[in-house]
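Hi all, posting the design record for the shared folder.

TITLE: backbone redesign
STEP: 1 of 1
STRUCTURE INPUT:
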C-alpha cells in the first residue's frame, strides 16, 4: 500500500512541476509594454506615413527568401530568447512584426516586450498581406 502512495506522490509532484513551469513560461513581466495587434492595412499606413518603423519578419530564413515585405529584416522567432536582439538595438523603436499566419508573430511580439522592447506591434501573417512582396 505504501508503494501506491509513493507513486501517487511522485505523480502529483511531476504534475505540479509541469503546471508551474508552463505558467512561468507564459508570464510577462509587469513592467512590459502592452501588446498591440493591428491589421495589415494599418501596418501599411504606418509604413507609408513617413513614421520610422522597423519591419521584422520572424519566419525562417528559407521562408523569408521565398518572399517578404519590402524593407523587412529577418529575425526568426526561434532566435528571440531572453535577451535583446542584436539586429534590433533600439529598445524604443517602433517594431512591426509579422510571420506567415500570425501565430509566430504573436509569440515574437510577446517575447520582445518581455525582454524590454517598448513599442512592438504585431500585424499578423503575410498570408493576409494584400500588398507586394520582394523575393530573393
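Okay, here is what came back for every position:
SEQUENCE:
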Amino acid at each position: 500500500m505504501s508503494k501506491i502512495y509513493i507513486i501517487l506522490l511522485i505523480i502529483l509532484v511531476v504534475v505540479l512541476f509541469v503546471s508551474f513551469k508552463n505558467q512561468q513560461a507564459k508570464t510577462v513581466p509587469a513592467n512590459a509594454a502592452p501588446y498591440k495587434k493591428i491589421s495589415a492595412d494599418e501596418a501599411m499606413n504606418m509604413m507609408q506615413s513617413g513614421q520610422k518603423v522597423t519591419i521584422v519578419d520572424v519566419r525562417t530564413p528559407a521562408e523569408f527568401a521565398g518572399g517578404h515585405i519590402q524593407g523587412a529584416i529577418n529575425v526568426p522567432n526561434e532566435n528571440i530568447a531572453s535577451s535583446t536582439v542584436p539586429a534590433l538595438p533600439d529598445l524604443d523603436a517602433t517594431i512591426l512584426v509579422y510571420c506567415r499566419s500570425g501565430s509566430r508573430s504573436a509569440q515574437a511580439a510577446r517575447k520582445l516586450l518581455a525582454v524590454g522592447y517598448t513599442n512592438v506591434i504585431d500585424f499578423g501573417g503575410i498570408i493576409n498581406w494584400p500588398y507586394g512582396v520582394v523575393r530573393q
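COMMENT: The radius of gyration is 19 Å.
Let me know if anyone wants the other runs.
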